[in-house]
Amino acid sequence: MTTATRPRHRTATVTPGPAILELTRLHVSHGAVSALGGIDMVVREGEVVALLGANGAGKTTTLRTISGLHRPTAGEVRFCGERIDGVPSHSVVGLGIGHSPEGRRVFADMTVLENLRMGAYRFKRLRQEDLERVFTLFPRLAERRTQQAGTLSGGEQQMLAMGRALMGRPELLLLDEPSMGLAPLIVAQIFEIIREINAQGTTVLLVEQNAAQALKIADRGYVLETGRITMHGQAHDLLDDPRIRTAYLGETAEG
Ligand code: ATP
């Protein structure tokens, strides 16, 4: 059975876990520009949730606000029931939220190993088991451990950005456009690894323009349009929805 046809490890009949992340009437502005106009969203423990939307819809702003990189102008962010809006970003990492940012943002002049070490900065010492986990998920990073990150391919840099986020041992992993600019074969590998990370117990909030791939590995999805949630539901229902098929899966209205 191929990856594309293999059923998900969970089905809609499984009782959803408790909320790990809750966004309530969240408003965020960049100066005079309103980026989020009061969004509500829930991510439950153990889920993969896809956040879809066109360029400029507010997906990156959402992840950066969860990570403490933007302050909301109104509304709440709760992680495991506790308010975290207003908590600085370095403390958010310590709470158990990892963030693989848009554009990877690896430290180009540092080696792979040094980048991974940076991801573990919340701990006094780098734990060998964390490194082993990352190298098992991404054998390519093990091979390239002494190589400068700036010399890696785009796909390898994406793996490094995800590996670095995992070194902080997050309960919730935020992934911003992991497939951006990568060849289809590498994209398929990255999505398979996201599925594996989730199967190992990490909850995932996945921002993607590649709606088809994202919804195939997600439990649920939200659609963001100009700062507002316009649709949400089970991933398989969204995949079948004609509005999603036309707007995000490149199908014509007739077909
Ligand atoms: P993309 O896929 O292009 O990254 P996105 O859905 O992630 O899009 P955001 O980057 O969150 O969208 O942007 C949401 C809105 O906020 C857009 O109108 C964008 O132009 C604006 N914006 C984002 N960052 C800033 C900033 N630093 N200053 C001013 N406006 C910003």
Report on the structure:
The chain is an alpha/beta fold. It has a single domain, classed as P-loop containing nucleotide triphosphate hydrolases (Rossmann fold), CATH 3.40.50.300. The chain contains ten helices and ten strands. Strands 6-7-8-3-9-10 form a six-stranded mixed β-sheet, with helices on both faces. The longest helix is centred in the last third of the chain and has 16 residues, at 184-199. It is globular, with a radius of gyration of 18 Å. Residues 1-13 have low confidence and may be disordered. The structure holds adenosine-5'-triphosphate. Residues 30-31, 33, 35, 53, 55-61, 102 line the site of adenosine-5'-triphosphate (ATP).
Features:
single chain, 255 residues, alpha/beta, Rossmann fold, 6-stranded mixed sheet, 4-stranded antiparallel sheet, 10 helices, 25% strand, disordered N terminus, binds adenosine-5'-triphosphate
